[in-house]
Amino acid sequence: MVVIYPAEVTAASAASGPVPDPVDALLSAWRAELPDALRPTTELSKRITQLAGALDAATRGVLPELGLTVAEFDILVALRRSGEPYRMQPNELARSLLLSSGGISNVVNHLTGRGLVLREPSPDDGRSTMIRLTPDGVRTAERAVRVHADAHEAVFAEASPTAVNEATRALRDVRIHGRPAPRPLRTGRNRSRS
């Protein structure tokens, strides 16, 4: 599936008039080619995928100005939202971000080298360590959260507040409620996002 991001939509609109909705085009093609493959949730899942791509692109677009990778951003904001004293054990941080402890360690090493986090002994267990934001890390995390929020808000710039609120409520109603996602009914070696 081709994802059209807001900047591309604006540029394309200026050049050639209204841009066709890519999800409508995709669904129209499948209605003509394989209508029995469409489900009541097909359009919703395609629109969520398109929106997730736009939000991810917005995040990745602003992090370089802060000198951060996505993984560094995730760690800094996880520590900041944990509340004072802005520290967590590495395994707790890994669980909260769904990352391996090895992956966390590499990113923490880089953040430590930049003076954004410190490793310190755990006050409860001298054998373990804690990862804590430095004052510069707190400032960087707070700036990153604000820049990130602004970038995401820009993705929704053309949507009315009412539409955003309604979509939020609707998605809350259809969430999976903590259940693991079901396995696909058909398996194959070549999965695509069709």
Describe the structure concisely for a colleague.
This protein is mainly alpha-helical. The chain has eight helices and three strands. The protein has a three-stranded antiparallel β-sheet.
Key descriptive features of the protein:
single chain; 8 helices; disordered C terminus; 3-stranded antiparallel sheet; about 190 residues; elongated; mainly alpha; disordered N terminus
Descriptive notes:
This protein has 194 residues and is mainly alpha-helical. Helix content is 60%, strand content 6%. It has helices at 6-16, 22-33, 42-66, 70-81, 90-97, 101-113, 135-155, 161-174, and strands spanning 87-88, 117-121, 129-133. It has a 3-stranded antiparallel β-sheet. Strand 2 (117-121) and strand 3 form a beta hairpin. Helix 5 (90-97) crosses helix 6. 13% of the residues are buried.
Counting DSSP E segments of at least 2 residues, the number of strands comes to: 3
Report helical residue fraction: 55-70%
Question: Given the structure, what is the number of helices?
Answer: 8
What is the molecular shape? elongated
Average of per-residue pLDDT values: 83
Radius of gyration (CA) equals: 21 Å
